[in-house]
Specification:
By secondary structure, the chain is of the alpha+beta class. Helices cover 22% and strands 30% of the residues. It comes from Nothoprocta perdicaria (Chilean tinamou).
Length: 321
Amino acid sequence: MSSLLLRRLHQTPRHLLVCEKSHARHAHSRHAAHVRDHAYNCRVSFLIPECGMLPEVLKSTIADVGEYYVVRNLPLHELVAHEFIDNFVKKGSCYALTYNTRIDQDNTAALLPSGKLILSVDKDTYEELGLQGRPSQYSGKKVMRYSAEGSTLMSYFPQNQIRSLKPKITFSTLRDLQCPVLQSNELQGKPEESCSAEELFEWLGAVLNQVNNKSSNFVSTYCCPQPSTTAEQAFLCTITGFIIPETIIQLLEKLCCYFDEPKLAHWLTLTVHGFADSPVSWRESEHGFHKGGENLYNFVVFRNLDYWLQMAVGTNDDCPP
């Protein structure tokens, strides 16, 4: 059994983490473009150290995160019908994604706001459709989610076929949180002075998943990288649902405005998870599930509005832009 476990450890899937830094107010900053290029998002979290409640500057954005819509039993040909294209696609900002499908096993589809329809289908369906395409780089191989203008969608589809949903929003205050020391100009960190972007990324994953940081014989633990400081409190907000890039850009801008007035926090984070079974990650880059379906990104915004952007994907995915 030990040798089998060792072989499996050697087969740990590869992951890609791309990091870049810039300034939110720099004329050539690409932060908004990177957000727009990641169309299908299921969870957004922001963490603000030394903060105990939702800041006033964020309240209107959180209150207006919008709705999304589930359309049941929708034939795929409806998405290429002239009436649908005229009512939604040509007006822009229409996002659609198959729901409850497995990208590595089921037929899936995604409609990008550019109007391009992405299909990921098995061999039999591909031959039946008679379309030109290319083989997926992943071996093995229903319902649609929409985000568009609500009143138009609700009138376009029968009432028994469409349902509107609101993203779920949760707030929590973390007490005595150990936070890594970061310096905006040091992505790689400095020994005994600051932590690296990669160390921050791992720590943040533990915090967002509420991994215990106390020693136990039966519970997985994770220690904060060093050097670190202890925040008496930290505010965590998580939004779950179908969240479009425009909403995330507004939220990121308000988080930057949080530092307009002096704050105790030296930095804050905004983390965005893409749907694990989306057929694309960034732009039109093919995405597969393999062992985890990772496609996510994280902003670390500093007091002076310098930021780090970390983009991560899993096995076989193309390198993020």
